[in-house]
Amino acid sequence: MTAPTGRTPGGRGSLARLGFSDLEAGRRDLAALERYGPPPPDALLAILGRAADPDAATAALLRLLEAAEEARGDGGRVLLGELLEDEGFAMRLLGVLGASEALAEHLGRHPEHARELTDPTLGSTRPPAWAVRADLLRAVGADPADDLPVSAGPDAGAVDALRVEYRRLLLRLAARDLTHDVAVDDAAAELADLAAGTLDAALAVARSRVGEQHALARLAVVAMGKCGGHELNYVSDVDVVFVHEPVEGASPDAALRAATQVASQMMRICSEQTGEGTIWPVDANLRPEGKSGPLTRTLASHEGYYERWAKPWEFQALLKARPVAGDLALGREYLDVVTPFVWTAADRDGFVEEARAMRRRVVEHIPARDAERQLKLGSGGLRDVEFAVQLLQLVHGRADETIRAPTTLSALADLTRAGYVGREDGEQLHRAYSFLRTLEHRIQLHQLRRTHVVPDEEVALRRLARSMGYYNDPSASLVKAWQGHRREVRRLHEKLFYRPLLTAVAQVPGTEVRLSSAAARTRMTALGYDDPEAALRHLEALTDGVSRTASIRRTLLPVMLHWFAEGPDPDAGLFRFRRISEALRESPWYLTTLRDEGEVAERLAHVLSTSRYATDLLEREPRGVRMLLEDLAPRSAEDVGHEMAATASRQDSREKAVRAIRVVRRRELFRIAVGDLLGLTDVADVGRGLSRLTDATLQATLDVVARGVAAQRGLDQQPARLAVVAMGRYGGFELSYGSDADVLFVQEPVPGADPAAAAGFAQAVAHDVRRLLAEPGADLPLVVDADLRPEGRQGALVRTIGSYAAYYARWSQTWEAQALLRADAVVGDEGLRERFHALIDPVRYPAAGISDEGVLEVRRMKARIDHERLPRGADPQLHLKLGRGGLADIEWSVQLLQMRHAGRVEALRTPQTLAALEAAGAAGLVDAEDAAVLADGWRLASRTRNAVTLVRAKGGDELPRDVRERAAVAAVLGYPPASTDAMVNDYLRSARRVRAVVERVFWE
Amino acid sequence: MGKQEEFVLRALEERDVRFVRLWFSDVLGSLKSVAVAPAELESAFEEGIGFDGSAIEGFARVYEADMLAKPDPTSFQILPWRDEGPSTARMFCDVVMPDGSPSYADPRNVLKRNLARASELGFSFYTHPEIEFYLFKNAPEPGVDPIPVDRSGYFDHTAQSMGADFRREAITMLEAMGISVEFSHHEHGPGQQEIDLRYADAMSTADNIMTFRTVVREVALSQGIWASFMPKPFTTHPGSGMHTHLSLFEGDQNAFYEAGAEYQLSRTGRQFIAGILKHAPELSLITNQWVNSYKRMMFGTEAPSYICWGHNNRSAMVRVPMYKPLKGQSTRVELRTLDPACNPYLAYSVVLAAGLKGIKEDYELPREAEDDVWTLTDRERQSLGIDPLPESLKEAILIAEDSELLADALGEHVFDFVLRNKRAEWADYRGQVSAYERDTMLPVI
Question: Which part of the chain is the GS beta-grasp domain (chain B) (predicted)?
Answer without folding.
Answer: 15-100
